[in-house]
Amino acid sequence: MRGFATPRARTAQAVLRPSFRIGNRIENEFYPTPPEATRALLSAESFDGSIWEPACGNGAIAQVLADHGHTVVSTDLYSYGFGESGADFLREHRPRAKHIVTNPPYGKGLADRFVEHALALTAQTGGKVAMLLNISSLCHPSRTSEWLSRPPARIYAVDDIVCWPQESHGPPPEYFRKHRYVWAIWAPGHAGPAAFWWLSGAKFRYR
User: Fold this and answer.
1) Which residues contact 139 (CB under 8 A, 6 or more apart)?
2) Are 146 and 179 in contact (CB under 8 A)?
3) Nearest Cα to 65, choosing from 42, 33, 90?
4) What are 129-141's pLDDT values in tens digits?
5) Which of the four, 32, 89, 119, 198, has the lowest number of CB atoms within 10 Å?
6) C-alpha span between 50 and 45 (Å, rounded)
């Protein structure tokens, strides 16, 4: 598979390292998901059974899922004080829950690998895969063939969200505020074109 696979994989060598900036990227791809993004997802998608969050970070997605009554298995390769650390998702061979919901790391082709591996694992459980992806992922020429061969069942554009660790890194740079995201949902048994809809992050931003 060309679009959803690269030879680069995460390893456990950097477990417990603190997060800092490397050029324009934050080390370990730590970009926590604002809660309104997950709330927006749950307003449109239902998940029957347990959910695995394999890049849980500080629990940004997992805690919202749990708040909505879901049983969540939270793991990450790195330690952010939440869930099970030292767990390399790409080396897991047995599903830990029925569904997989995550904001995968994007650098070095990792998002492609996460999608591919999540689909392989949920093929064993009959569960859904929900991935928060940069909207540019939909238009990358190296991925077109993979979107066509294994299209998501649904794609939700989510407006007005910023995935950035503001508590540790301050306000996001202006260029980062321009990033836009989609939830891509793969469902068992789906065939044919993906449905597309819009979700408002601001609608689910609670203070």
Assistant:
1) none
2) no
3) 42
4) 999 999 998 998 8
5) 198
6) 14
**What distance, in Å, lies between the first and last C-alpha atoms of the chain?**
43
Structural domains in the chain, CATH included, are 29-204 (3.40.50.150)
Q: What is the sign, positive or negative, of the torsion defined by CA atoms of 59, 65, 67, 70?
A: negative
